[in-house]
Amino acid sequence: MISIIMPVYNEGEQIYQNVVEVMQILNRNKIEYQFVLVDDGSRDNTLSELNRLYKNYKNVSVIQLTRNFGKEAALCAALENASGDACLVLDADLQHPAELIPEMVRLWSKEGYDVVEGVKSDRGSESLFGKIAALTFYKIFNKTSGINLESASDFKLLDRKVVEAWKSLNESITFFRGMSAWVGFNRIQIPFEVKKRTNGNSKWSAKSLTKLAVQSITSYTSAPLYMITLLGVIMLFIDFILLIQTLFMKFSGKALTGFTTVIILLLGTGSCIMISLGIIGVYISKIYDEIKNRPRYLIAKKQGKGFLNG
Fold first, then answer.
1. Over the stretch 280-294, which tens digit does the pLDDT of each residue have?
2. What are the φ and ψ backbone dihedral angles of 116, each rounded to 5 degrees?
3. Can you give the pTM of this predicted structure?
4. How far apart are CA 249 and CA 256, in angstroms?
5. 106 alpha-carbon distance from chain centroid
6. pLDDT tens digits for range 42-68
7. Which residues of 190-219 are buried (b: 16+ CB within 10 A; e: fewer)?
8. 31 with 101: CB under 8 angstroms?
9. Which of 162, 168, 171 has its CA nearest to residue 295?
10. For residue 272, with 0-12 CB atoms within 10 Å meaning exposed, 13-18 middle and 19 or more buried, which class applies?
């Protein structure tokens, strides 16, 4: 049995029809399934639509979080509670093509792959800036962490043992794509084209994407801390060159009055110090968040039979 996981936030206009559309595909292919839908503190009529799905379909389970914790936390809530032999993560707006689910299930059940991950063959209607920003993030993440997430997505099917391995990772700040790649296992990729949204707009803002990128990189590598040391070495080398130049100008009688060099050095050194303190501050804030040991999410209500332990 497959647990179809959907984190949902302010998708009231389309969530009912989208779930029914996925059901039709699963039914045609005779796939046994259970939906686990997580309302991540929606402010529209999403929860009422999820409750309507729960009342109308016996294979729909609903988790209501106490507030908006973010997509990563909503995914955690679903994965930690879903009871399927495999879990398949699908975006509620169906930009992940549900038509590929039967092939993903076949690769898992017939070919024996533990992870079937959808990778983007293109990024759809995303803006040029968005594509460049995403490419830059993945390049930095790959170089610093050794994990290649280029063209990766949350569109994945995970075997039960992979889900259990993922659940053993206890950090408070999560990054599903990175964590699911880090655990390893026998995996295969399947390309897909990102579909257009039928209604509404993406809930990801530039600010939230930037925050996710910083959290993701600092969660998987300490390379930025080592970059501070490298930056210090570079500044020391520049200072040494300037020292030689200054002494040469002084003893050759060519020294000019003014503080241009001093000002440049002060500004450069000050900037490096502030950047270094900022990077250190990010890591300290992560330590602070981890030692508080707060739960990733809080559940207000669970409805349905698709959960572990009932």
1. 777 777 676 667 677
2. -115, 110
3. 0.65
4. 8
5. 26
6. 888 888 888 888 888 888 888 888 888
7. bebebbebeeeeebeeeeeeeebbebbbbb
8. yes
9. 171
10. middle
Q: Amino acid identity, residue 213?
A: A
SS3 readout for the chain:
CEEEEEEECCCCCCHHHHHHHHHHHHHHCCCCEEEEEEECCCCCCHHHHHHHHHHHCCCEEEEEECCCCCHHHHHHHHHHHECCCEEEECCCCCCCCHHHHHHHHHHHHCCCCCEEEEEEEECCCCCHHHHHHHHHHHHHHHHHHCCCCCCEEEEEEEEHHHHHHHHCCCCCCCCHHHHHHHCCCCEEEEEEECCCCCCCCCCCCHHHHHHHHHHHHHHHCCHHHHHHHHHHHHHHHHHHHHHHHHHHHHHCCCCCCCCHHHHHHHHHHHHHHHHHHHHHHHHHHHHHHHHHCCCCCCEEEEECCCECCC
Give the type of residue at 200.
G
Contact between residue 149 and residue 141 where contact means Cβ atoms under 8 Å apart: yes
